[in-house]
Design goal:
269 residues; mainly alpha; 77% helix; 11 helices; globular
């Protein structure tokens, strides 16, 4: 039997989940700064990293305040995507008739640019939070449905038949067999959905809003304040990473038994 390979403190630190992305981020920032210096790119085209960091340091309270409406719209749209997307996927996976009617329309709806129909939401619902929530919902809904349908359809029919042969009701078979088997695919869709919901919320803020990170970006573009615009992009990236991490943590709590959640162990030969 193999023995666990010994690791030093430096090796353990480098293998930490957050260290490698951080190192790669540092590399990108350094390459960004060097490219500006070497090619003499003017500040009105691409700002230097130090200018963006200066804006983040001085304008952090304002950027944090503007991030709350975006976060709220993103979370609400994402939760609606999960709330409606999973039941719709259950209907599609459980009925060929529903699939033939609904699934093609869902695919067709994805070819319509959301930025093109977002102004209609402003006309119908005003300049409040509702248009942003709807935009976030529309972008996050489709990944949830597609992944959940794939998960429910991939359940082994023999397992379902065995559970029913043991006098299991439809609901109990669904909870014991169908749902656990589909959860990994569902969470994959939720991870994609939560990042797209951020994009949807910003699209809604672009169209009509007087608050939010999308509003800050639109205002910065109008005044050619590129450091502030890049700082807003950093805030959006952080928001997406945090929400993705939260969904990933929930996945580890819900399905710790799945192979994707097992920790890698290095054995010596």
């Amino acid at each position: 039997m193999g023995e666990l390979k010994p690791q030093g403190a430096v090796s353990k630190m480098l293998n930490a989940a957050w260290v490698r992305p951080f190192l790669f981020l540092v590399f990108i920032i350094v390459a960004w700064d060097l490219a500006i210096r070497l090619f003499k790119i003017p500040a009105y085209q691409i700002p230097a990293p130090c200018d963006v960091l200066a804006v983040l340091r001085t304008e952090w309270p304002e950027l944090l305040r503007q991030s709350w409406p975006t976060t709220y719209a993103t979370v609400c749209g994402f939760l609606l995507s999960a709330l409606f997307g999973i039941p719709v996927a259950m209907l599609i996976a459980g009925s060929k008739t529903v699939e033939s009617y609904v699934y093609p329309l869902l695919v067709f709806s994805q070819s319509v640019p959301k930025i093109a129909i977002a102004p209609l939401f402003v006309v119908w619902f005003g300049f409040g939070i509702i248009p942003k929530v709807i935009s976030a919902f529309l972008l996050g809904f489709f990944p949830v449905v597609v992944s959940a349908v794939q998960g429910f359809k991939s359940v082994d029919p023999d397992m379902v038949d065995l559970a029913r042969a043991m006098q299991g009701s439809r609901f109990r078979v669904f909870l014991a067999v169908n749902l656990p088997h589909a959860l990994p695919a569902i969470f994959s869709g939720l991870k994609v959905s939560v990042t797209l919901a951020v994009v949807g919320a910003v699209v809604g803020e672009f169209v009509g809003s007087n608050s939010g990170i999308g509003y800050v970006m639109q205002r910065s573009i109008g005044t050619f304040d590129l450091p502030t615009m890049f700082a807003a992009l950093v805030i959006l990236a952080l928001l997406g990473v945090i929400l993705f991490w939260i969904v990933d943590r929930i996945e580890k709590l819900v399905i710790p038994w799945h192979v994707s959640q097992r920790e890698d162990v290095i054995f010596a030969s």
